[in-house]
Amino acid sequence: MSPLKTAVRRLSVAVLTLGLLGVSGEAAPAETLGTQLTAMSATGLKLSECQTRMQTLGTMLSKAGYVSRRAHLGADAVMTALWYHPQRHTTVVAFSGWQASDNAFSAAEIAGQVGWNEFLPLP
């Protein structure tokens, strides 16, 4: 068999396999997203670093099919943001310090839909 026919056959098998597995070019696999969220978490950050991480996270999640739910800057200088993926039924929650320096940034993916009221303090 010629090298060209072998290459075409292998490529066809690879494309068929990916199609059967349901791989999509739009959304990042859950394992990759979890790894990226963990890698973004840090402490001792300046405000500009937190702003950049929040913007990067928003762009990354938007490309992966997440919809921004809400962002809120609390009186404690902590930015809280929520994104939801309707097909995966998962929520990404991010917390970021919003002071001049010494901030922490953390984000996590949570199964299900997380409501904004779950972050309100109890009396």
From TrEMBL:
Endpoints of the signal sequence: 1-29
Keywords noted in UniProt: Signal
Name of protein: Uncharacterized protein
